Amino acid sequence: MASVTTTSKSGTAREDLWRCVRCGSDANPGADDSVVCGACGAVYPTRDGVLVVRDEITGNNEVARKFYDGPTWPKFRFWEWLTFITNGGERRSRNKVLKHLPKGENLNLLDVAVGDGVYLPWLPQSWSVVGIDVSRVQLESCKPRIQGRDVRLVHGEAEDLPFRDGTFDACLSIGAFNYFNDPEKSLREMARTVKPGGTIVISDEVPNLTDRAVFHKIGLASLDRWLIHQVTKHLGDEFNAMVERYKNLDIAAIGKRVLDDCEYRKIWQGVGYVLVGKVPG
Ligand SMILES: C[S@@+](CC[C@H](N)C(=O)[O-])C[C@H]1O[C@@H](n2cnc3c(N)ncnc32)[C@H](O)[C@@H]1O
Ligand SMILES: [Zn+2]
How many angstroms does the Cα of residue 244 sit away from the middle of ligand 2? Predict the structure, then answer.
């Protein structure tokens, strides 16, 4: 087994986890904690405890990678904190999302866009988690949170998951879905890698958040634009273009196309949403 995690508990190793993102065949643990595809010869190395399946990243994913590898991203934690304190506190706010995950011990969870793993301490200690993200800096920041837990970290993209079909009991993805290069493709990938009947929980801010400022309600849309510009100007044009790209994304419709029993619900007084559904089959 490739000891892709720094902390995997013995007895929980998964040799049957990996799939080649280049050709789609099963891949297997190789030398030096690498993962190797026997069909096409691709070798995915492990660097500092993180399995690397993608070096080159493009489009929105590259804009996100640059942002989350850079120094500005902690500013976003302020907006998250503000959302939480105005919605009954951190536990209550996070629970609006986490309560949709299945209950039980020893479950296998995939966390897509795990970031710095801020949600990990809120998950049962007995769960095995695989976290994937495009940002190396975020995955590094995740490491202190995975000590003593069975967590594997992977550097790769939501649209191309390096895991075999039906591997996980559930999948969680928080704070990234609207900005993926291809949100629907990523949801199809999540559904592929979760067992039939398994749960997928996705949460993010509503895609048209930048239309939700107060002034347009009293006929002063230009003041809205000014206000939003004040908040986002330091993020740069490229980042703002990424945020605007999927402003009209119909999350509920995407969910219905891919999942069974799919429900889209606004949370946090309408600034966020949670999408929950089951994998068909
Ligand atoms: C706002 S953070 C959320 C992190 C964590 N889930 C949380 O709730 O705090 C967004 C994360 O999504 C990652 N990300 C963006 N696009 C991605 C993609 N296509 N595949 C994987 N990760 C992606 C970024 O690198 C970043 O770590
Ligand atoms: Zn291959």
Answer: 35
pLDDT at 252 > cutoff 50? yes
Atom of ligand 1 nearest to the CA of 157: 20
Note the pLDDT tens digit of each residue in 188-200.
Answer: 999 999 999 999 9
Tokens standing for residue 269? 């007084």
Ligand 1 and 118: CB distance under 6 A: yes
Superfamily of domain 49-207+246-278 in CATH is Vaccinia Virus protein VP39 (3.40.50.150)
Please state the pTM of the whole predicted model: 0.91
Instruction: Spell out the domain ranges in the chain.
Output: 49-207+246-278
pLDDT above 80 for 48: yes
User: Quick one: tokens of 16?
Assistant: 């049957």
Query: Which pLDDT does position 215 carry in this prediction?
Result: 66
CA distances 273 to 10, 22, 29, 270, 280, Å, are 37, 33, 38, 7, 22
Q: Evaluate: CB of 138 within 6 angstroms of ligand 1.
A: yes
What are the φ/ψ torsions at residue 234 (nearest 5 degrees)?
-70, -10
Distance (Å) from CA 36 to ligand 2 centroid: 8
